[in-house]
Amino acid sequence: MPTESIRKHLARTSVPAARRLAAKSPLAIGLLSLLSISMLSLNTIHAAPLPQPTQLQVQIDNITLRDDLALGGRVRTTFDRGARLIAAVDVTDLRDEGSVPESDPDYGLQYTLDFEIRDVRTGTIYDSSQDPGDSRQITLAPSESGSVELVWNIPYDFPSNDYIFRVNIDLADVSNTEAHFSEQNIRIMDSSRHIFKEEDRWNFRNVVDEETPRTKRILISPNNPDAGDLVWRVTGWPFEWLELIEPMPDPLDPSRSIEVTNTGFLQLRVSSSALVGNFSDEVIITFNAGEVSFPVLANINRHPGGEIDRFDVTPNQVKAGEDVQFNYRVNNNGRTDLSYRVTFVVRGPSNAVVYDSSVSDEDAFVEVADGQTTDTRQFAWKVPYGSVKGDYRVGIELRNAYEFDARPYDAIDTTDTKAKVFNVLEGAKISVSPSEWQFGSISEQDIERQTATFNVTNVGRPTLEWQITAVPEWIELINLSPQTQQTGDGIVVLRLREDIAPGNYLDIFKIDSNGGEFEAALGVNIRSSVRPTPTRSSTHTPVPTPTSEPTAEPTSTPIVEPESTDTPVPTPTATSAPAPEPTSTPIPEPTPADTPTPEPTVTNTPVPEPTATPVVEPASTATPTPEPTATNTPIAEAETPDTPIPVPTSLQPGVSDKPPGGACSEAPQPLSPVTALANIAMLLAPIGLAGGARWTVRRHKINGR
């Protein structure tokens, strides 16, 4: 049908239909208009829908994990720190073959692959998308498959734990796509597998005299330089026979080395003190990736030697308390330089050991080169006071200076059979009683009566010679002078100084003698004899509060002074007894004047009545107020009326505590599409009603014609 015919047909059919509809309902035109505008609004709202993410048409088929640095490169899910993890990812484009022409720009789509290391508790720990160098790209045509390798160098200090290895694939340079991912479980372990050691086993083999010292040096470095810094230190080695040269021992903790980062050398040397034996131990190195230990072996076959070349004692006779001197020489008859330790053992008349220099940690140390002999050395020993008289024997023993509990060596030369004999004479020996003196707790008033007495006795032979060498500052000697030589038995009397101040004192009293030393502890507590004087506390008298009423100025009225008598006035005492009552003598009434009223005397003398003087009334109606008298009567405080506390508006019924402004003061809220349509309909309803009413009026006018 031609266009013009269609237009005429619609005009013939639609206009009469509209007129019939308007005739039946006056509001039809308005409703039709409202419906048309509402549909137009709906079309406007839905004309620009929100963008939806593009569904990727690609999938990850398989992920194969391996360690590129491990031998064989076999598939695994457990990796060591420092490993180079290779993830081979197989992907396929899911678009149908032939669905996109080859000439179409979207025929070959480029995809980006990256990976995440995720902890099941804390989430993502590492994301390769933050490092563009770790991401990979692949271009696929419809139905095409391909493979991409992702590389992760596991840091040497990465925490050991179980993780999720997640691979993400997305369209390159397109942000509004839904990425696809696939996951595998992996485990990171502490290990030194990826640390390079030049040797895994050190064998120093046979070590003889001519090869002293023998040293070995090995290189240690990270196998994977891309796995971050390798930090390490030596934490254990057999220091009994090996010396750590490099890295040097830590000055703060010599049992371990200083810290080394990445590449470094480990150097060990057989100690010159290790003489003979087969040794098998281990060296421990601690890395930030884990710990490694490797064995160290050595067969040391040196030829040490040594002998006592000379040994004698001077003098041959000594008294108890005197020194005896042991003279000796050491000859190194071996084939290696040595350090020797010389031990002296003294036995008394009963053959019991009375002295051992090794037990007392007083051995002599001597260093002697191969084939050399020392000059004469001396070792002095003081015979104890009170030693039993008789013959004593001293033996000498020569041994390796660095003898260890774990590997003891026999003494090189023991010459106890050639022991030297010396005689000890009985000497003086001091005995003092009591062994200490405590004065106790005394008052300052009793200081001068406090003394202490010590008895000095010689329990040995010959004559005892002694003197007092130390006296506390708060003690004075009564019968002796300090630093004065005394002979034989004696008495020492001490007393406290009179000027000693209160407090606690503790010190030492000392006597030196040819029969030994004596020390006694002295102590005392001096109490102060001064007692503090108690003070009386003052009583607070309440002060009356004057009234605020205006007081008229009264006229000055002369007051007759009462005649004073010679009767003495009693002085009040500081007691709590009540004051005496005044006599019945009439007392003149005081006038309200500024003149002070004299106190009445406590006598029976009559007091003349004062002359009545007319007082001029002041113009003011205020009554003069007499001065209040200070008494102990408590003053009642005026009650303060209760002030009403305002109630918050939020607690009052029907009252809002929000600021004025109505709904417009609130933040605007978003409207839903249904609410928007309802608002539009309500706004357009009056227009439709008005149009319908106007059409009805016109129709009536036409019909009326």
Strand fraction band? 35-45%
Largest β-sheet summary: 7 strands, mixed
How far the N terminus sits from the C terminus, by CA atoms, comes to 38 Å
CATH top level class name of the domain at 54-189: Mainly Beta
Q: Name the shape in a single word.
A: elongated
Mean pLDDT: 75
Describe the structure in your own words.
By secondary structure, the protein is mostly beta strands. Among the domains are: 54-189, Coagulation Factor XIII, Chain A, domain 1 (Distorted Sandwich), CATH 2.70.50.60; 195-301, Immunoglobulin-like (Sandwich), CATH 2.60.40.10; 307-425, Immunoglobulin-like (Sandwich); 430-527, Immunoglobulins (Immunoglobulin-like), CATH 2.60.40.10. The strands form ten sheets. Strands 24, 26, 27, 28, 30, 31 and 32 form a seven-stranded mixed sheet that branches. Strands 3, 5, 6, 7, 9 and 11 form a six-stranded mixed sheet that branches. The protein has a five-stranded mixed sheet with strand order 13-22-21-15-19, with no helix packed on it.
